[in-house]
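To start, one record:
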Amino acid sequence: MTGVTIDVGGTFTDCLVMDGEGRLGQFKALSTPEDRGKALIDCLEKAAHAAGQDAREFIGGIEFIIHGTTMATNALLTLRGAKVGMLTTEGFRDELESRRGLKNIRTSMYNLLVPPYKPLVRRYLRLPVRERTLYSGEIETPVDVATVNAALDKFEQEKVRAIAVCFLHSYANPENEDKVAALCRERFGDAVYVTTSHEIRPAAGEFERFSPTVVSAYIGPIVSDYLVALEKRLAQMGFRGSLMMVRSDGLVQSVAHSRRQAVSLINSGPAAAPTAARFFGSLLGHENLISVDMGGTSFDVALMRKGEIPTTTDSWVGDERLAIKMVEVHSIGAGGGSIGWIDSLGLLRVGPQSAGADPGPACYGKGGELPTVTDANVVLGYIPTDYFLGGEIVLDAERSRRAIRKMAEPLKMSEADAAQAMFNIVNSLMADQVIELSTKRGYDVRDFALMVGGGAGAVHGAHIAEQLGIPSVVIPKYAALYSAFGMFAMDVGREYVQSYMVGADKLDLGRLERIYRGLIEEARADLKESHAEASELVLARTAQMRYAGQFHEIEIPLPGELTSAADLKSVLETFHARHRELYTFDLAQRPIEFRTFSLRATVIRKRDLRVASLAPGGKDAAAALKRRRHCLFGKNWIDTLCYDGGRLLAGNVIPGPAIIEEEATTVVIPENFACSVDHTGSYSLKRR
């Protein structure tokens, strides 16, 4: 049986195919923004051709497809979502707009000229419903159906495409939200997308619950329509396996669940990259990693200590607050397709605008005329024009030079100097993003290895490390399909949460266990969608805790069921230790509060992911020498040795400057680095 992972990015769609023996085949296709599912099918057809099978026969033999996509993120960032109506508790229609006085996390608290926030739902579509649930879960006021129907009349008149139901304290008792959601579905059927706040985030905090719920409604119709169309398209081609989606929290879940919780697909593709980094880091003996993924459109960074994938509930996408759990990945618009331009001060800038897949960089010959990072790399000699994607795309170097020339002439620079300036600028932008997650948080980058992925990452990785002083760079096997590889190593499952706000000295262990029994029952029911049996579930408990009076919580693992005062004391000691680790101090005399309890339910893996060992060889890599090419390193054009990545052996050592040409990427080794090939087929670059 065959397993497939597919990551649809802004420029390329990446596909990895695992056969019954665990062997991996890699395929890429240009993404198709006008028809999001076409590139996915293109990849499957390439895989079928490579296997010598008809596409329908090949797709019919696929056991599962794990799919990551930037579609949800892009819909939110570009504000191309649906027209949303919001139903909320009477008196709370402005909660979404006041948002507890918070500014966007990327805005200085001292900036007095921040433009007013524009909610995704205009005020005239945020309509009150007479109802009230208390924090205890007691329903003080049942739903007034007349106010609901009046609001739905308004929504019908305004032709809204989605409805977000956001009531006070629905996390404690969702009865009123469920009743109103049923009325909405009875009225509009499938024509209007309906979601409720207790489904999205069943935890305390009105704004933190309302905001991601509205986001989920805003992107819900786009996500739902895409997934329905994709399932239908695959079924028509004979697919009978399981189609699953990568969630923002680093887990994999069924399509049915993903349609209901569209917001969980924000950062769906990038969320898989740290899993790939951890997998290769464990093989190569690296626990502390800075994972970077440079594709055609964006650059994604995650910092991992002791092999732990970082998560956060404090994320923003654009101006929208997402309080759901997400893998902590920071992204900027810096990729191979990032466009070079001259600002109003006459300074050279790069990105965040991207040429994307259509028209793409000038060298693609698809009509693009603006200079991109890929064009700069072609002019510098780093990328082979005849072996891009294994020769599938022939790059036009003259088009790259013409595009760079248009920018170079106003700056009175040569083509080569302008290309190198673009190369250095984008490297600096990416290095700054790494600093945001490391140095500015008190971590020394010299204690980390730089794990580099993405189709463009191997070209720039060593130069980023050189700017930052990172001594070790790892370019893993399948780096060009970094996130797609990580999807194979991800767990199928979900995380369930329930608020129980109580001081540690008043925690009722019996009530806590009843909460977890309810979460476990919910997990068992939900995971049937993924064809999992109760015996296959792996359950892990955590708690969100804080010192009394603090604003932010820390997530602490719980050692199974808490049955005694000694168990509770152990958890509190773990909290103090974790606080010291994160902030260098603790407040041992300060009372501790529990805020939210979580259950992570995953399915036991039926197949281990492994990478075939590379044949051993000596240090001399001369047998893999492919050709020489003039490349610009620093101020000098150097006759550079270019090696065929497919012919290298474990143990080969290549001193810089040199180029390794892989089918889906190109590894650039600067002058003061040396590259060694390890048993996994990965490249380790170290400063000489």
Remarks:
- DSSP finds 17 helices and 34 strands in the chain.
